[in-house]
């Protein structure tokens, strides 16, 4: 390590560094500078603080670091004897853009802001040299930022690929398990249904109640396995669409018939409009029915008793894909927080406190595996359509409601007027 001579001649040290500066300015500067000593790791100037001084390294080394986040910083430059730093904040009259620390015991000359600016004002050639110095440092930092971004990008891409592989493994496992379990479950369901009808059970109220419990739970389990298989079909294989003319009013008529009892029990009002004169869609009727089933089921599940579900259908002629049918299912339920509006379509994603969900497929906040919207989106997108949700926010107290929109293209071959 070089050490500062005891009889240090400031003017002679500055002369080659400030080459071209008139003698009297050099004298003035030599009088004004202050020599400072910093131990290893000592902070000389800190990012974000106002820049009041410019420094020149006499001996030792300094490191220049930029903050990346609360816990990390990036090293952008190392400065040794004869190097200037701190001039950028002084020239900009702004805050320090980086932190400088001594990387070993270091001696510096400190020039105060006013002296530095007045000397610079008197020597244009010196001004240009400082400008070049600052520009080179900036370009260096810029290049390092780009390299750091490229590295981060590569790491992110690698992490994403690993996550996708893991996600795939998880989905495969769930799909295989659901397949394996569905067969014995179907048998269990069949036997339970047969037993429920048996006269021994029918004649005994207690047995009837117990059988009813077993049957309801088995049916629920069966529904969950079916939706897992549907979802994995949507996610892994892509859906094959066997098209035929489909009528939206007929689909909704069937769905509302299925839910008539629960709608009645839970005192929900269902209003429908726009069903007259709709064209047929060229679509897979079973898949489309399934998708709308999930949407109506959710509207029922997430709306408290006494609420209203409004289903509005209209034709649009001016969408990017041409003519389309748009279905809006609006409820007066608990609503959805803005940050969840996209995420709810991801598999197994459920909002709110899942542990508080009640059981039962149509009870208020009835629990579900979090697959209905994944399946609905898969089905709608396989038809070239779009599905999205809108809501003012989530509140179980105020129930601001949600609206789910489905837009399906009317393809030419199926635009038969009903
Ligand atoms: P599930 O209903 O089985 O949990 P879904 O995929 O159908 O799964 O829905 C995912 C999540 O989106 C639900 O758990 C719920 O948090 C939210 N959600 C769906 N529909 C509605 C709705 N109409 N109102 C409020 N939240 C909803």
A few lines on this structure:
This protein is α+β, with helices and mostly antiparallel strands and about 425 residues long. The protein contains eleven helices and 15 strands.
Which helices and strands, and how do they pair?
Layout: H1 10-17, H2 23-32, E1 34-38, E2 43-45, E3 53-59, E4 62-67, E5 73-79, E6 84-85, H3 87-92, E7 99-102, E8 106-112, H4 113-122, H5 124-197, H6 199-203, H7 205-237, E9 244-246, H8 248-258, H9 260-265, E10 269-273, E11 281-283, H10 285-301, E12 308-319, E13 322-331, H11 372-382, E14 386-390, E15 402-409
Parallel strand pairs: 10-12
Antiparallel strand pairs: 1-8, 2-7, 3-6, 3-8, 4-5, 4-7, 9-11, 12-13, 13-15, 14-15
The structure holds adenosine-5'-diphosphate.
Adenosine-5'-diphosphate binds at residues 294, 298-299, 302, 331, 333-334, 336, 344, 349-352, 368-374, 402.
């Amino acid at each position: 390590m070089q050490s500062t001579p005891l009889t240090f001649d400031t003017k002679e040290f500055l002369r080659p560094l400030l080459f071209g500066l008139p003698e009297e300015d050099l004298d003035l500067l030599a009088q004004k500078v202050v020599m400072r000593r910093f131990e290893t790791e000592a902070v000389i100037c800190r990012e974000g603080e106002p820049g009041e001084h410019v420094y020149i390294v006499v001996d030792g080394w300094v490191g220049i670091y930029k903050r990346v986040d609360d816990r990390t910083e990036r090293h952008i430059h190392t400065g040794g004897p004869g190097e200037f730093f701190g001039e950028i904040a002084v020239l900009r009259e702004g805050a320090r853009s980086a932190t400088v620390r001594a990387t070993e015991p270091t001696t510096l000359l400190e020039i105060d802001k006013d002296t530095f600016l007045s000397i610079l004002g008197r020597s244009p050639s010196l001004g240009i040299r400082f400008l070049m110095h600052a520009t080179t440092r900036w370009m260096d930092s810029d290049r390092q930022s780009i390299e750091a971004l490229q590295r981060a990008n590569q790491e992110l891409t690698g992490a994403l690929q690993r996550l996708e592989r893991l996600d795939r493994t998880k989905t495969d496992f769930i799909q295989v398990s659901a397949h394996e379990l569905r067969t014995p479950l179907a048998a269990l369901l069949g036997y339970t249904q047969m037993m429920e009808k048996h006269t021994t059970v029918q004649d005994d109220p207690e047995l009837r109640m117990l059988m009813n419990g077993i049957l309801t739970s088995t049916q629920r389990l069966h529904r969950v396995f079916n939706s897992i298989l549907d979802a994995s079909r949507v996610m892994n294989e892509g859906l094959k669409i066997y098209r035929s003319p489909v009528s939206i009013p007929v689909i909704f008529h069937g769905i509302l018939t299925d839910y008539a009892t629960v709608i009645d029990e839970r005192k929900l009002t269902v209003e429908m409009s726009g069903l007259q004169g709709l064209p047929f869609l060229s679509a897979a009727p079973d898949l489309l029915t399934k998708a709308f089933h999930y949407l109506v089921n959710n509207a029922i599940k997430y709306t408290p008793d006494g609420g209203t579900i409004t289903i509005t259908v209209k034709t649009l002629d001016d969408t990017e894909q041409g003519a389309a049918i748009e279905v809006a299912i609006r409820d007066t339920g608990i609503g959805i927080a803005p940050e969840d509006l996209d995420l709810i379509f991801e598999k197994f994603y459920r909002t709110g406190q899942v542990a508080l969900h009640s059981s039962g497929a149509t009870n208020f906040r009835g629990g579900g595996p979090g697959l209905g919207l994944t399946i609905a989106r898969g089905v709608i997108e396989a038809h070239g359509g779009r599905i999205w949700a809108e809501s003012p926010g989530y509140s179980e107290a105020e129930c601001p409601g949600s609206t789910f929109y489905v837009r399906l293209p009317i393809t030419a071959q199926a635009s038969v007027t009903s």
